Amino acid sequence: MKKKSDMKKGNSNRPKILVTGGAGFIGSHTTVELWNAGYEPVIVDNFSNSKKWVVISIRELTSSGIRCYDVDCCDQTNMRKVFEKEGQFYGIIHFAAYKSVSESVDQPELYYSNNIGALKCIMELKEEFGIPDLIFSSSATVYGDVKNLPVTENAPLGAASSPYGVTKQLGEELLLDAFETGAIILRYFNPIGAHPSGLLGELPAGTPQNLVPFITQTAIGKRKALKVFGTDYNTSDGTCIRDYIHVVDLARAHLSALGRLLVDRKTDIFNVGTGRGYSVKEVVETFQKVNGITLPVIYDARREGDVEAVYADCTKANQLLLNWRAEYSLDDALMHAWKWEIRLAEGIDLAA
Ligand SMILES: NC(=O)c1ccc[n+]([C@@H]2O[C@H](COP(=O)([O-])OP(=O)(O)OC[C@H]3O[C@@H](n4cnc5c(N)ncnc54)[C@H](O)[C@@H]3O)[C@@H](O)[C@H]2O)c1
């Protein structure tokens, strides 16, 4: 078992963690939590789905000079230069990937080359530089159409419904084949919310595909009305059910995963959700209640590919990820998401 004192240190005496995709939605919040917990996060991001000013916000929030490299994770030559320049990393958290299900259906090759290409490059450099730990962002999408709820890590996988899902399932298989120890796969449910400060949040490209950014953009007036897809599902109010987890709780699960590898090196898979499902109608009503806003809502037909209900059994994460559990409520997440949308509307230099 490794001890804290064995961790490889950077100049700052903090264990150094490479965060790929660290300027993105989940990566930026995780970078802040890593810094707050005494790590030294180093970001690599090619800004294909994020903005450079996010890194400035991260530095502001942490009062730090966290380093960021504008490098594509598929570019092994330049990635190697980052490893050589930074010296030994204690661990890698690999977020960098494309994440749009619909875009992946239109451009599967793009998703295979980026998501698998980046992971393979990271895995090779992990081996070459002897980096002990790797945390991989997987998704509840690997479960496909779930039969038994809540879904456990042992449920059969069925991700083949989208190339994006395939890249996550394949990524998991590559890691399980390559590393018997030192890797943790986290299957995220539905990350929502924003940093409580309002300084970090989600930046959806184009029309949001996820419910909460669609809600906040409607509330701010960027969208005419909120579309709810499907009201005839076999659920209590007819709308789909999902497990929404506050992004800061999700970020903290990565720290617990790093801690877990200190006590047990075995490669393993964990669901990361709240264990509770909320319907689309419940989310809309909660947003209106906590923020005092009435939303224009259009009830539309079902959207192709949407699963009726999915929420996590988080028992394994609660027990083995050092007692990690989601702490923020849905109310908190929807208040923080709204605070973030207001900040965007008040004007950050979005061209940066
Ligand atoms: N947000 C979700 O709903 C969700 C759910 C389950 C899993 N995930 C996974 O979590 C991870 C992070 O998701 P997110 O919501 O923060 O997405 P995001 O798009 O906000 O962040 C991903 C970041 O990776 C960067 N990136 C992409 N490809 C890159 C490459 N080749 N080289 C360098 N940087 C690259 C992007 O610029 C972006 O900053 C992804 O792997 C995603 O598939 C996300």
Write up what this structure looks like.
It is built from 11 helices and 13 strands. It has helices at residues 25-36, 53-62, 76-86, 101-106, 108-128, 163-178, 211-220, 247-263, 280-291, 315-320, 330-347; strands at 16-20, 40-44, 68-69, 91-94, 133-139, 183-188, 190-192, 226-229, 241-242, 244-246, 268-272, 278-279, 297-300. The protein is globular, with a radius of gyration of 19 Å. The chain has one domain: Rossmann fold (3-Layer(aba) Sandwich), CATH 3.40.50.720. With 352 residues, the chain is an alpha/beta fold. Residues 1-9 have low confidence and may be disordered. 39% of the residues lie in helices and 15% in strands. The protein has a 7-stranded parallel sheet, with helices on both faces. It has a two-stranded parallel sheet with strand order 7-10. It binds nicotinamide-adenine-dinucleotide. Nicotinamide-adenine-dinucleotide (NAD) is lined by residues 20-21, 23-27, 44-50, 72-74, 95-99, 114, 118, 137, 139, 188, 191.
- Please, how many domains? 1
Reported CATH architecture: 3-Layer(aba) Sandwich
The percent range for helix content is 25-40%
Biggest sheet architecture = 7 strands, parallel
Task: Provide the structure class.
Answer: alpha/beta
CATH superfamily: NAD(P)-binding Rossmann-like Domain
Number of strands: 13
Radius of gyration equals 19 Å
Count helical runs: 11
| Content of β-strand | 5-15%
> What is the spatial order of strands in the main beta sheet?
3-2-1-4-5-6-11
